[in-house]
């Protein structure tokens, strides 16, 4: 089974600290890197994680607050300096086109690759990207400006050939495609061999949901139900619930409530306010609601 690795490049919030970088993550699947948000310091974190810039397949920006996108000009400039030629898709909310075009005009006048910017509807869930490895869906969030999260769903074969059984019944190789499409096999003697004897069901796809800056927003629950891993921002703890409400952010307990109600397998918290010297108190609050919770930190790698 191929690796499905999430690398935490940054998990802090807007104000800089010596403890955390602003938000950025790299999802590494089948040799491709899907970069999620790009706060300042993302490039150094990519180097420290021993990931390759050339493997970045596409970029997903949640919203246009600086701690989620100020690293983008530098990253794009580096990719140009390294001679990238492949087109680079960048997804984001309304306004992302104008932002990227400004970067191109100011810093990338001789860019050797095409940047394909695609704005997503922030009001509804939709399929925003699909390739041979993954499907990516937008997740509407509720913040002070248009904001979206992303759901990454691995693409798996629905059926696998049971080769010993196919050989036993002398199924021609040319018929394998029909078996994988769910059809039975009829021998030369007219005997019907059930597809269930000749194939095996594929494993369920692994799914990762990234919920960036958002207030407590119950509509998220159905959109992330049952995912293998949910990242949900936890800017504040119970002690600063009033600040969470005023700034349209979530507390650790609220994030854990979303995870519990959605029946996710694991919760990862992050986007800590600079007020907190440690994430320990936030982690404790989250675990009171949803025990299978971990706290993000730079350099963390989770294999789904």
UniProtKB/TrEMBL annotation:
Coiled coil: none annotated. The keyword Ribosomal protein does not apply. Binds 2 Zn(2+) ions. GO terms for molecular function: 3'-tRNA processing endoribonuclease activity; zinc ion binding. Its cofactor is Zn(2+). Belongs to the RNase Z family. This is Ribonuclease Z.
């Amino acid at each position: 089974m191929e690796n499905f690795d999430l690398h935490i490049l940054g998990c802090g919030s807007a104000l800089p600290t010596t403890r955390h970088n602003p938000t950025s993550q790299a999802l590494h699947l089948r040799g491709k890197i899907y970069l999620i948000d790009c706060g300042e310091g993302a490039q150094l974190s990519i180097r420290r994680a021993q990931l390759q810039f050339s493997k970045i397949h596409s970029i997903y920006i949640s919203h246009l607050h600086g701690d989620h996108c100020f690293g983008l000009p530098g990253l794009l400039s580096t990719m140009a300096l390294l001679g990238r030629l492949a087109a680079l898709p960048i997804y984001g909310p309304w306004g992302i086109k104008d932002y990227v075009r400004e970067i191109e005009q100011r810093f990338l006048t001789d860019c050797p690759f095409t940047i394909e910017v695609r704005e997503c509807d922030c009001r509804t869930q939709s399929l925003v990207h699909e390739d041979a490895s993954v499907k990516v869906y937008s997740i509407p969030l509720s913040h002070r400006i248009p904001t979206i999260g992303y759901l990454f769903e691995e693409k798996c074969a629905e059926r696998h050939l049971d080769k010993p059984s196919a050989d036993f019944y002398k199924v021609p190789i040319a018929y394998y495609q029909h078996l994988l499409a769910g059809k039975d096999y009829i021998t030369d003697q007219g005997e019907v061999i059930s597809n269930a004897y000749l194939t095996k069901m594929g494993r369920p796809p692994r799914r990762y949901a990234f919920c960036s800056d958002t207030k407590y927003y119950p509509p998220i629950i159905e959109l992330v139900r049952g995912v293998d891993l949910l990242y949900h921002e936890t800017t504040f703890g119970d002690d600063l619930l009033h600040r969470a409400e005023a700034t349209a952010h979530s507390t650790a307990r609220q994030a854990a409530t979303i995870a519990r109600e959605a029946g996710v397998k694991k919760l990862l918290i992050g986007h800590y306010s600079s007020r907190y010297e440690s994430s320990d108190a936030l982690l404790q609050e989250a675990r009171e609601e949803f025990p299978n919770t971990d706290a993000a930190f730079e350099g963390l790698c989770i294999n789904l």
